[in-house]
Amino acid sequence: MSGSLITNVYVRTLFEFCNEKLTNIDEIQQNLKFLVNYIEKNADFKKLLSLDVFSINEKKIVVNEVLEKLPLPKLFKNFILYLVEENRIKLLPEIYKSFVAKEELNEGKIEGTVEGNLQDIPKEDMDGIKKYVKEKINLNPILTYKMNKELTGGYRVIVGDFLLDATLDFQLKRLKESILNDKNWSH
């Protein structure tokens, strides 16, 4: 099974915990964020979790000791220990990102990226793009702008499976293909 399929199984499990009222979504999200940040800030702990030179049992012992010192609920600690036992603890950052994305989707929100060749996007352009995307996918897009010097002009928007390529480069490519494929242009 690929990493994202496995990640989705764990994310669904966390949402099932919430549906069964064993915990709530905000608590899970805060705990995931806290632990992912904790791991990122502690290089030795991160190495322990990611390197295969340590046995699963050794990892479980150390992780259990660390978890006992952290202000996390028992259910969440058990979930983390299960990830260690299954040698899937490396997926924790991906699980966190997928959990947040699924929660936003449940709330009618979706993250996306706008690329352009300018340093910053004018507010009216971003507002227009948000409005257009919202009309097309019936979700509220949360868009971040990213400068892409390879683009000549215009914008490329990626939101989930939705792609809008309104760049000059793409339009010129389509024009070229149209001319090359049009029988009327050739003699």
Structure notes:
The protein has 2 domains: 102 residues, Peroxidase, domain 1 (Orthogonal Bundle); 73 residues, 3-Layer(aba) Sandwich (Glutaredoxin), CATH 3.40.30. 60% of the residues lie in helices and 15% in strands. Strands 2-1-3-4 form a 4-stranded mixed beta sheet, sandwiched between helices.
Low-confidence segments = none
- Helix/strand order, N-terminal first: HHHHHHEHEEEH
Shape: elongated
| Assigned CATH superfamily of the largest domain | N-terminal domain of the delta subunit of the F1F0-ATP synthase
User: Do you know the CATH topology of the largest domain?
Assistant: Peroxidase, domain 1
User: What profile does the largest beta sheet have?
Assistant: 4 strands, mixed
Structural class: alpha+beta
Count, helices: 8
Q: Hey, roughly how much beta strand do the residues contain?
A: 5-15%
Mean pLDDT: 88
Quick one: how many beta strands? 4
* Portion in helices: 55-70%
- Give me the Rg, rounded: 23 Å
CATH class of the largest domain: Mainly Alpha
Number of domains: 2
The CATH architecture of the largest domain: Orthogonal Bundle
**CA distance, first residue to last residue:** 53 Å
